[in-house]
Amino acid sequence: MANIKNLPKLDRPREKALRYGINSLSDSELLALLLNNGYKGNNILEIATTLLSKYKGLVGLLNVPISELKKNKGIKDVGALKIALIGEFYKRIVEKNSVSENEIIDDKYLYNKYKSMFYQATQEYLILIILNRRKRIIYETNIYKGQSDLIHIDFKDIYKELVKYDGKSFYLIHNHPGGDSSPSEEDIKTTLDLISQSRRMKVKLLDHLIIGDDCYYSFKKMKKITISY
To answer: Does this model's pTM top 0.70?
Structure first.
């Protein structure tokens, strides 16, 4: 991996974030920007990439104790504290936004929860939300970030996460950066395919939402297709 100083100025994490927005950065670039400094022989992007690989992504990294983080080359007290701080913020936000036993999880709830994430987004994101037998959310993750306005959804990726977390049903949410939440022909075809594959694997797609500018589309609510089995 090239040293940050050897990268074109606009490709460096700090300059890239300032020019294109913080959501333009990869996970490694975000972490590199947070940590700031590397050590002799390894630049900070290499350190960030190694950490994410070792702890299986951002969520895994944010759950690592400070004492363990400090065992990694290039991570001193300040760097470990920064990662732990973000991890604590993340846990508290998740806790405050967790669904109460009496709260209904539906298209309106999910839209209100995720609309701020997609506000002024320039890329398409695909969110997978996994539920248990009692229809309570047990895991949420972004499984795709596209470079354009076209997302390829592979059911194998979804099913792998469902098996990992023992999920019985799931929601999908993606955004249309152009602002129009109407489904494309490809969106409709993909959703139909997902329903068919889900049925075969005995898991349930509860709904597929498309979020635009101050609006959203629910496949189930709009009855474009029937999601019931």
So the answer is: no
Q: State both tokens at 186.
A: 């490809």
Instruction: List the chain residues with pLDDT less than 50.
Output: 1-2
pLDDT value for 172: 95
Query: Which residues fall within 8 angstroms of residue 35, CB to CB, at 6 or more apart?
Result: 44, 47, 48, 74, 75, 79, 82, 83
Alpha-carbon radius of gyration of the chain: 19
Domain count, the chain: 2
Query: Can you give the residue range of the structural domain that contains 88?
Result: 4-96
- CA 107, 110, 114, 116 torsion: positive or negative? positive
pLDDT at residue 41 in the model: 56
User: Looking at the structure, do residues 56 and 140 belong to the same domain, yes or no?
Assistant: no
The H or E element spanning position 51 is helix 44-54
Supply the pLDDT for residue 9: 65
What are the phi and psi torsion angles at 127 (to 5°)?
A: -105, 130
* Statement to judge: residues 112 and 157 lie in one domain: yes
